[in-house]
Amino acid sequence: MKQFLIKGLDCANCAAKLERALQQIEGIREVSLDFMGQKIVYESDLPEEEVLRLMKDVAKKVEPDAVIEKIHHHHHHHHDHDCQHTRCNCDEHVEHEHSKVVAVKGLDCANCAAKLERALQNTEGFSHVSLDFMGQKIYYESSFSTHDAIKKMQAVADEVEEGVVIEALHQEEHSHDHDHGMDDVRMMLVRIIVALICFVASYIVKQPIWEGLLLIVSYLVIGYDIIWRSIKNILKGKMLDENFLMTFATFGAIYVQQYHEAVAVMLFYQVGELFQTVAVNRSRQSITELMDLRPDVANLKVGEEVKEVHPETLKIGDLVVVYPGEKIPVDGVIVEGTTSLDTSMLTGESMPQDKDVNDPVLSGCVNLSAMITVKVQKEFTESTASKIL
After folding, report:
1. What distance in Å separates the CA atoms of residue 130 and residue 225, rounded to the nearest whole number?
2. Positive or negative: CA dihedral 376, 377, 378, 384
């Protein structure tokens, strides 16, 4: 199977619509678009350049923001012997081996991420920019130092998506991403509680001075960031966003002396934002856990030699060696060896399952006890883990 890289798709529905359109192209068959993996897999007797041109023409009509390009494979011949029993992140090698990477925070939706990605792709001095929304990373190529690249990217982000932070990626970044998200939630929760206490207290106190002071404190605690962002956006000529609308609405309430209503509107808005942040964090965590189903590499057995290949390149009938601790890359049947498999990621069943020769196995399961050889029965795009993703 041949494949291209695709970027700029914001939702699974857009991906499905584009996939159906690509399947109608004459001369190209077995087209499958992997939305999560950002790949188009296909078969064709046409030259690669011709297929790429045809697909780009269709994408321009169906999904104008989609970008289709070649995948720059970097072969692993030098790993064939040294890495037979080690695992490497082949997705990184395929798409990002020569790329630099920085962390990005503050993006709440895929559409915002796509908009920022397009802006960075059009920024002079950067090439092959790819923003991983779920992984909260930006991959890019540039002659700039990391420090200078971050400064330039941050300047673009400030123009396009207010509140986005781009910073150097630390080794421990991945393990703490969820903690950082929870810190933001906790901080917002504290602000809401403080503002709510002041808001309720303003109804209890009898003196107008204290009532006004409590309402001012409540309004500023819950809405200072909204007001500040709206002011900055106005100075940049960007007025009609939610920050401006909320500021305008509450200032209007204050103007007509409906002070409690002004604070209540800002409180309800921030509570909604809190729920959205919690939902995004949970979705990000769930999808990250699902992505663990996707195998990194496959150990293809050719004669007596075992070499690492990308799971997408496996064909029906190939023999794949799966070492203890590795995920099974594609659906198949065991032809050599006996082992126990962890199927919890697929079935939720915590008890390992014993497997012997001629037993079927599913991709995404983890081999626990012994080396096995699996005969491929389904290609990667048709295997269980790939379909789930």
Report:
1. 29
2. negative
User: What is the rounded end-to-end Cα distance, in angstroms, of the chain?
Assistant: 19
Rounded Cα distance, 336 and 27, in Å: 39
For residue range 358-376, list pLDDT tens digits in order: 999 988 888 998 899 999 9
- Whether residue 328 contacts residue 361, with contact meaning beta carbons closer than 8 Å, is answered with yes
If you ran DSSP here, which 8-state letter would residue 144 be given? S
Degrees to nearest 5, angle at CA 264 with 262 and 266 = 75
Q: Is the pLDDT of residue 239 over 80?
A: no
- CA 310 to the chain's CA centroid: 20
Tokens of 96: 């990002």
What is d(CA 205, CA 197) in angstroms, rounded to the nearest whole number? 12
pLDDT tens, residue by residue, 78-137: 333 343 333 343 443 434 444 688 888 877 777 778 888 888 888 888 888 888 776 678
Q: Cα–Cα distances in Å, from 140 out to 17, 130, 146, 184?
A: 28, 6, 11, 27
Q: What count of residues does the chain have?
A: 389
How much is the pTM? Answer: 0.49
Looking at residue 327, the DSSP 8-state letter turns out to be B
Q: Identify the CA nearest to 273 among candidates 192, 328, 207.
A: 192
d(CA 322, CA 329): 8
Question: Is the sign of the CA dihedral 325, 326, 327, 328 positive or negative?
Answer: negative
